[in-house]
Amino acid sequence: MSRTDSILARLSQLHPKLIDLSLDRMLPLLDRLGNPQDHLPPVIHVAGTNGKGSTIAYLRAFLEAAGKRVHVYNSPHLVRFNERIRLAGTLVGTRKLNAALEEVERVNAGDPITFFEVTTVTAFTLFAETPADYLLLETGMGGTYDTTNVVRQPLGTIITPIDYDHQGFLGNSLAEIASSKAGILKRGARAVMGLQRDEARKVLERAAHRLGITPIWQGEDFHGSEQDGRLVFQDEAGLLDLPPPALAGAHQFDNAALAIAAIRHFGLPVEAAAFAEGLRRVTWPARMQAIRTGKLRDLLPSGHELWLDGGHNAHGAAALAQTIAAMPAKPLVLIMGMMNTRAPEDFLAPFRDLAPAGILTLTIPGEPNAHGAEEIAARARAMGFAARAQRSVVKALQAAAAIENARVLICGSLYLAGDVLARNGTRPE
Fold first, then answer.
1. Whole-prediction pTM
2. C-alpha distances out from residue 345 to 168, 251, 323, Å
3. What is the pLDDT of residues 392-409, one digit of tens each?
4. What Gene Ontology molecular-function terms does this entry list (predicted)?
5. Distance between CA 308 and CA 310 in Å, rounded?
6. Distance separating alpha carbons of residues 298 and 251, to the nearest angstrom
7. Which of 323, 336, 401, 415 could form a disulfide with 249 if both were Cys (CB 3.0 to 4.6 A apart)?
8. What gap in Å lies between CA 191 and CA 4, rounded to an integer?
9. How far apart are CA 19 and CA 110, in angstroms?
10. Cβ count within 10 A of residue 393
11. What is the average pLDDT across 88-104?
């Protein structure tokens, strides 16, 4: 076990629950550390159910193409914890991370605090002490009581499409979930809203009205779509004719348009040329990522394709299935594992019309709260899919290799995606 892993293991023992939504434990610790959350570069705070990470990836690409230094806070990580904290464009170094974690651990002095709380406090201390032009801050869960929601006056806020997810913590209705996400809105901070279902939009509108905010809305105040293979964006400031996003999938045109709208609405210094460069260079691992080399890729014949995606809910699965459907026809094989907080049926439903040649199921390695491979396979078979449980991703790929000229998609969980990247020898950054 590495020193970082040892520190993180200790910190994970400070609270009996992994998730306990509250800010009451963080605020006293932040105060003892000098309130680093009040000494950050201008913050763009992003909440939502789907597309948060991709939207932040576009924001970062645009701002860096414009020559700006950008901090980023994302979660979860795929292979190394360092991936969660990017300082002025570079992933935090291990020595710097360990020193910050240990200092926060010392100041906390054994008080009860969740893993995500204490690591977010650590991130804030690093962001506060490292010069940068902007901080792109992704919520972990919800908004109102999310650990990131201690920033009192962000430059601006973005809420990506809201759908059902984390119902056990955020509520069972779309309105309850939207109410939690709306908690990041702040009086005096401009807001940009992604495409929303009516039930969620009404909640967001009421929350914005109470705060005196007039958000701009995707599909109404700004539009972005694919036209002749390019991204055409339009808002009240005018039209942009841009190259297509480097990230695969029709939904990435929506994510890119949301990020462009935010840059323009927040008044950030990004010109059309930087938008174009950012679209060409943007990267975001485990989001419809083509795996072209590596130990796992070598298990498949040359005529096969191997794709990796960490989407794990119904909305993400629908976007994923749409992306696959738009590709040239090939036999489709799904290799999937899921956490037991997700329903395999919800994830698989969008793939019915694609008629996969096979579904190979896995138990996610090292995750005690994962669905068992046999259970996922049984539930897939009950839906009419041809599904078989596999002992490992290696065995699943060997089985997929027997299907001629197949398109193989590993999917269902970011935790599975991280395991696959590590086993393949692919660095997420």
1. 0.93
2. 18, 22, 19
3. 999 999 999 999 999 999
4. ATP binding; dihydrofolate synthase activity; metal ion binding; tetrahydrofolylpolyglutamate synthase activity
5. 7
6. 30
7. 323
8. 37
9. 18
10. 22
11. 98
| HEC secondary structure over the chain | CCHHHHHHHHHCCCCCCCCCCCCCCHHHHHHHCCCHHHCCCCEEEEECCCCHHHHHHHHHHHHHHCCCCEEEECCCCCCCHHHHEEECCEECCHHHHHHHHHHHHHHHCCCCCCHHHHHHHHHHHHHHHCCCCEEEEECCCCCCCCCCCCCCCCCEEEECCCCCCCHHHHCCCHHHHHHHHHHHCCCCCEEEECCCCHHHHHHHHHHHHHCCCCCEEECCCEEEEEECCEEEEEECCEEEEECCCCCCCCHHHHHHHHHHHHHHHCCCCCCHHHHHHHHHHCCCCCCCEECCCCCCHHHCCCCCEEEECCCCCHHHHHHHHHHHHCCCCCCEEEEECCECCCCHHHHHHHHHHHCCCEEEECCCCCCCCECCHHHHHHHHHHCCCCEEECCCHHHHHHHHHCCCCCEEEEECCHHHHHHHHHHHCCCCC
Report the relative pairing of strands 85-87 and 190-193 from DSSP bridges.
Answer: unpaired
CATH topology of domain 3-281: UDP-N-acetylmuramoyl-L-alanine:D-glutamate ligase (3.40.1190)
The pLDDT score that the predictor gives to residue 84 is: 97
CB-based contact 108:14 (threshold 8 Å): yes
Q: What is the Cα–Cα distance from 199 to 208, expressed in whole angstroms?
A: 15
Q: What is the pLDDT of residues 3-37, one digit of tens each?
A: 999 999 999 998 887 777 788 999 999 999 999 99
Q: How far apart are CA 72 and CA 123, in angstroms?
A: 10
Alpha-carbon distances of 220 from 201, 211, 232, rounded to whole Å: 12, 21, 15
Q: Cis bond leading into 76, ω under 30°?
A: yes
Neighbours of 212 (CB within 10 A): 8
- Tell me phi and psi for residue 303, to 5 degrees: -80, -10
Q: For residue 379, give the nearest of 323, 338, 318 by alpha carbon.
A: 338
Domain ranges of the chain: 3-281, 289-424
Q: Find out whether 235 and 264 touch, Cβ atoms under 8 Å.
A: yes
Total count of residues recorded for the chain = 429
State both tokens at 85: 């904290």
CATH of 289-424, one of 3.90.190.10, 3.90.1150.10, 3.90.190.20, 3.40.640.10: 3.90.190.20
Per-residue pLDDT band for 166 (boundaries 50, 70, 90) equals low
Buried b (16+ CB within 10 A) or exposed e, 108-119: beeeebbbbbbb
User: Distance of alpha carbon 201 from its chain centroid, rounded?
Assistant: 21
